[in-house]
Amino acid sequence: MATVEAQRPVLVGYGPLRRAWGLARQLPLTPTIILSLVIMCAIFADQLAPHHPTEGELRMRTKPAAWAEGGSATYLLGTDDQGRDILSRIIYGSRISLAVSLTAVLLAGTLGTAIGLIAGYKGGLIDALLMRLADIGLSMPLILIAVVVTAVTGASFRNVILVIAFLLWPRFARQVRGETLSIKENDYIALARVAGRSGAYIVWRHIFPNVIPSLLVVSTLQVAYVILVEGSLSFLGVGVPPPHPAWGLMIAEGRVLVWTAPWVAAFPGIAMGLTLLAMNMFGDWLRDKLDPKLRQV
Amino acid sequence: MMADPLARRRRFRFGLLSPLVLGVLLVVGWSSSAAEAKDPRGTLTIAVATMANESFLPDNTPGAEMVFSNYMFEHLVRRDPETGENLPMLAESWEMRDGAATWVFKLRRGVKFHGGFGEMTCEDVKHTFTKAARPGTANTTTFLKKLKEIQCPDPYTAVVKLGSPHPMMLNEVNSGVFAQTTYVQSKKALERGDDAANRHPIGTGPWEFVSHTFGDRVEYKAVRNHWRKTPEFERLVLLKVPEAATRIAMVAAGQVDIAEVGVDFVKELKAARVETRAIAEFASIGITLGGMWPDRGPGTSKAGLPWAPLDDEKARKVRLAFNMATDVQAIKEQIFGGFLDLTSATMFFPGKPWTPDLKPYGFDPAKARQLMKEAGYPNCFEFTMLMVTWPGRGYGPRAGEAVASMLEKNLGCKITREPMDRAIFSRHFGARTYPGKALAYAFPQVGTEPWEIWIRVGHGKGAAQISGFEHPVMDEFLDRISKEPDPKSRAKLQREMATWMYKQVPRIELGGTVALFGVSKRIGKWPLVPGQGVPHYTEYITRVD
Amino acid sequence: MQRYILGRVAQLLVSLLVVVTFVFLLSRLSGDPVQLMLDVRATEEEKQALRVQLGLDKPLPVQYAVYLAGMATGDFGRSVLSRRPVLEHIWERLPNTLTLGAVGIIFSIVIGVPIGVYSAVKRGTALDHVARVIAVTGQAVPTFWLGIMLILIFGVWLAWLPPGGKSGPESYILPAITLGYFTAAAIMRLTRSSMLEVLGAEYVKFARIKGLHEQVVIWKHALKNATIPVLTFSVMLFVIFLGGAVVTETVFAWPGLGRLILEGINTRDYPIVQGGVMVFSAIYLLANLMVDILYSYFNPKIRYARPGA
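ok -> structure tokens follow
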């Protein structure tokens, strides 16, 4: 939650991409391992999952994990109330979590960045107008609005992504606008103007590249947040529809089985928790790297 | 307690609806045996999944409201849990006239409304029913739609005149039948205005209204020296707890005494060591295949439906294949914990006079694949299944998911699941706008005989359509049965109707099930009427501690 | 300062208008409410009669104007289900949401502040590491999952606490922990960093030189100054709690406003949804406004983004 707004020193003439590569070589171990695992699961779900994610074997309903009494090696993490393999569903579920969160963040990021750049560069009335809009967006009770919208428009992948993206863009816009304002003050921007470069050119070539590092930080943290929101929506029954193995949905389905099969809700929650943990740690690390000033916080 | 579901079933004898039933029964039998005067004490808490409209107004109660209001009100008639016979309640006797188009009720004298609202008379019956039948009413009771007028020749006689014969009238003014909100309320109390009547409803039942918090609870207190039965508990609290897991945990912890729990949680209740009570013959579950009806305008029909029309031989093969690809036995054991009567037609519970001796279609995936090939769909096809949630009856979607998964696995179908609240689906079943969609649905018992639900949801002229098909033969059966006053002839006609349906294979049939309650250790005897799916007759519950 | 506050209040009103308009449009776009209110067998005349009664026969802009006027005067209409005034239902539920939020805040402060202080004072020790782990996991554990696990352990296995519903004071414990765990972790982080900052400050060093007992230095001098950001943050906690109310109230069958709205959605009781979202958003926006004002007032060095960021 309480993330610190990065007041990043401006990077001039120092390839942000090269810098990113430099960072990549000193990635923190734990979050990197977890995240790579999640990403691998998402990409190679078909190869990795031992069972079909939605076609269960009803007679194998609510079998416990392999190491527990009554468990079998066939179902490592046990089965749910439809006799579906929980491990396979978690593996396929990573695909949903990542697909929804990455798409939503990409959409919100693109929109927010564009608005932030325009507002920051143009200033004046446009800036005031766009930022008031962003403030309104930021002050909304996000989950509540998302629940109302998805419930009314119907639960589906597309709607979940669109709603989340729609509610998320102001976070990017604010960040980018703030950075644009400070970058704008640099001499080389003034020089570019004098040289007769168009506003679009300046924004694209001089400002945008310098915004990328902090965009990465915000995006990483927002990906984690979107996973949580998507999970909440699925949990409330207005997110990704069944039988898709969305983690939030799996937890909701497992909730009614806490008496007889607590593992059905427990394992997807652990998977989700670990992913969020890694995502947050990674985001924190990235922020520390890009903004050493705030490292101790 | 959980041994054999069938062992709990009580035998019913349905000699009850013969013409000219003259009920001269006084309050005798099972109620009087428990009538030693005990001072009420303690609180009886009941957790339910939904309180529906949460309204007490006669014209704003489609039926499911019975779950929180039947305690404080009384009907004209009640039902014997043992024999299924109609017994006097507010009416001491009744008479059917004009071929069931007129019903005369002799009212009990000396029944007092709560809170000093005076004695119950015919004027109260007239006012309540007339209000319930007003244009724009939400009350769904059939006789109200036919209501012409109610006459009060004297304070204790109510003459109900209907526009057409209605032999099943007694089922609709009955506290022992599910979803009947035809209580008698105080005219004087209703005339205070809707808000006042809704905020503080007045009835004649053994529990008196205390308070209502929307979406949370209704509280009642015991009426001392009630004419019928003074409850053994001092207070009655109805709690709305939508989550099944929470209801189970609450009853296991002794936080509530009775919890409405879907039959799919039998194993959870057992694991929580909660004692259960089951109401037999409550609902019938299956997958309806929408679209086997004539075009009725935009959105009501879809061309090239593999499972339609009803008469098409290839379509019949598809429907039969769907049934044979469904392992009903596994669903019975795994999801319903054994509480599923495998039947071959909706609402036809085994062992009834109207139920023909027909075997379920049986599980045979190889044969099913063969049938699909013959029908021209070797790899099945794509369609949507609506998972309709009735609060507290999660087994509909759960069973639906199992069937969908089996059809995908055994036949290669591609099925999109669409969760839908029952309140929203009601729009579609009214307008018949779900052609080509399958529908996981639990039909609740709303009468005493199968045709009573069928005529509501499977008749070509019916305002609702949940059976998936309409057919002139079916309509003819239903029309004939509905006019037939003789129970034996009705039973015979229904056997023929069920046999005809069986041959058509109209839907994926799973079977009939019970309504289940988890109860705390404090609950002793509790007489329950089969088919009446909400907690009722709580005044007859005996305390154990 | 005054201008700033006025500006923010104006913005609050605009935000509220946006929310209200949004919900109005959504509810009108999603189908005919009359269809839901009446029996399937209702005739067209019956439907029309109800439409007239509810004002649904008028053109959309007129409906909107009527609706806005109602919202402004506190007339939120009547519940489709119960037909009672929506405001009555909201008043019944709102206290439950607010008291749960308050208990949650107390919980997170009681847990978060001492651990934060200790881990700052004993920096680098095992306790500090444990605190950091709690702080990090606090952000990663999904609320609804935590709630279910708490129910499982304390409501089901140990049977110490009621698994759901609002009854006695003990029924607050599990939902408050669920709500507060997340924020306790955040408070812990915040207290730790503020304490670190303050402990390095001149006056604290001076107090130490004066020979004051170390405990007094920590708890009186240092914590007092570290409190400002923490207090400000507590108001923000309230905002966070409101945001999580729908989920937590659902998990614990808590009769609050969030669940009222969610059930209104499930049953398509739009007047309830509209009124509920309106009141909920108003409180949320107000709390948000207070956060902003407090921040600009104290002007702390570290600026925290809004909840959820």
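Chain A touches chain B at residues 52, 54-56, 58-59, 61, 81-83, 155, 237, 241-243, 255-260 (CB under 8 Å).
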